[in-house]
Amino acid sequence: MSRGTAIHSERYVWPLVYSLAWLVCAYIALELTQGEDGIAAVWPSSGIFVASLLHLGRSGRLATTVGVGIASLLANYVGGLSLLACFGYTVANLAEGWLVFYLMGGEKSRGKLLARPMNLIRFAASAIFVAMLSAGVAGVLSAKFDLDFLTSWATTVGLGMLIVAPFILFLVQSDEGRKRLVSVRTVWALMLVAVASLAAFGQAQVPLLFLPVLAISIATAALGLSGAALALLVVAVIGSVLTVYDTGPVSGYFPLQGQQVLFLQVYFLGLLVSAMPVALMLAQRQRDLVKLSTSNRFLTSAEKAAKVGHWRYAPSDGAVYLSSEARRMLGEDARPHTVADIADLFHDDDRKRVAHVLLQSLATGVPFVFEARIPGPQGEMFDTECRGEVEWADDPQKIAIFGTMMDITDRANTMRELANARAHAEREAEETRLLAETDHLTGIANRRKILSDLERTVLDGRARSEKVAIAMVDVDHFKSINDRFGHEAGDRTLQQLSSILSDRFADAGMVGRFGGEEFLIVTRGLGASELDTRCTALRDFLCTYAWPVEGLSELTLSIGIAELGEGASETDLLNAADKALYFAKRGGRNRSVVFEGNLIRV
């Protein structure tokens, strides 16, 4: 229905329908009067007007009020009442409806479901209060103050509200209620109610007034709240009509008309009170089932979107419940019955650990969380994060364990890719660092690296009170080697020398190429004299070494040695070694010179 059509129905169609229904029901009730002074046993029109006010919006309520006012004047005038009485009854009819409307919350009452127990109780209390008040107003306006008139007015108006208004509101407020009434089941239920009512009120030989109670109970169970309200309406109509014609037991039991009216009203009220609580409970149950179904549907959708399944194991159930998302990961054929069966669904490498965690949680009640792999039904492998807790009970047999399993395959793959990328980046960074710290020709530490090592060695030596000594090595007459044998031969010579230096001083420290044909040896734990001894042994070794350059029979070294003194820095140490090297070259090369204080020892 479009918005324009809905507004048109609200302003014109519904007010016209309610007004005509009010007029027809009022006319029939007056014609079939069972009360004294023209007061009907049940006044359905009051319920129709109240239902219209609770159903429609502001414009619809005003239009219906005008329509019902005209219908009330017309019905009462046709019924033979004086003009003053017509106006008095009309004012009472309109006032009672609006008063119930405001007692229900006024504008806020629109859309308030009477199918909810507290709303229905509030409505019943409002209807009873207004019915009594309306009787007083009608008595004042019509100048009738006898008890029979006031009682008859209050009971007929009250029953009309209590029986008719809920039925109408159940229909207009509940799509489910309307759907239930448009069914074959409704036809059979109403036929049963009608037959029971005819049997109860159509003869007086056998007392069968209990049959409508049974029929209403069956209609309530079959059709719910709307069915109960409709069944009550059917019983009220049939009972009232048959009693009018003196065919039922009521006229036989009670000779006076007032007594018959009072009995019918009490009987209808008893039916209402006995049927409505059951109908309300059934309606609440139906709403709870719908809510539960909706919640389960949302849960299934949420689990599917989040890739989270759940399971529950209770020893008393004899089987493990698996949600649809859990079965997606475990397979539709998975039928676990024990904790061991649950663990068997996981990867072989994780199975023992999973079983231990679940059994420990079941024994101690401590919640669990773990990650494990699950072989999928299609050969895939799911990485899962499993969480759960134990549901405690007084009976050990009723203890259960509830768990969830989240498919974290994408996250795990991403983490693995990130780990691989990180390892690759670290390898590249290490390679870059090595390239930045390694001399490209000799493969040993370059100048920046060896100076960094020297700085760190000096700091550590001071902290640990260890000796630190260095040797600055220079190849004698290296330029002549390049000139005589070529630069390639010179490079091979430097490479071989670097290898020899690294091997002979690996246990004492580090070796780096300082620049050109110069090398720097950094040692820890050796003094200058000890390092000098090792350098002398090195020079002796080189005297007999067979170089990989044809024609190169001898290669000598000039070495400057210095030891870290108190308060000296690595710069002071380098300067001392450089001075010692200078004296070694100046003294004729092929020698070691030690710098001691300000003295040079060859």
UniProtKB/TrEMBL annotation:
GO cellular component, one term: plasma membrane
Alphabetical GO biological process terms: cell adhesion involved in single-species biofilm formation; negative regulation of bacterial-type flagellum-dependent cell motility
Enzyme Commission number, as recorded: 2.7.7.65
Pfam families, A to Z: GGDEF (PF00990), MASE1 (PF05231), PAS_3 (PF08447)
Membrane topology: Multi-pass membrane protein
Location in the cell: Cell membrane
Any one GO molecular-function label of the UniProt entry: diguanylate cyclase activity
SMART domains, per the entry: GGDEF
Main localization of the protein described in the UniProt heading: membrane
Enzymatic class: transferase
Keywords (A to Z) from UniProt: Cell membrane, Membrane, Transmembrane, Transmembrane helix
InterPro entries linked to this entry: Diguanylate_Cyclase, GGDEF_dom, MASE1, Nucleotide_cyclase, PAS, PAS-like_dom_sf, PAS_fold_3, Rev_trsase/Diguanyl_cyclase
CDD domains registered for this protein in UniProt: GGDEF, PAS
Transmembrane regions listed in the UniProt entry: 12-32, 38-56, 68-92, 120-141, 153-172, 184-202, 209-242, 262-283
Domain GGDEF: 466-597
Protein name: diguanylate cyclase
Organism placement in taxonomy: Bacteria, Pseudomonadati, Pseudomonadota, Alphaproteobacteria, Sphingomonadales
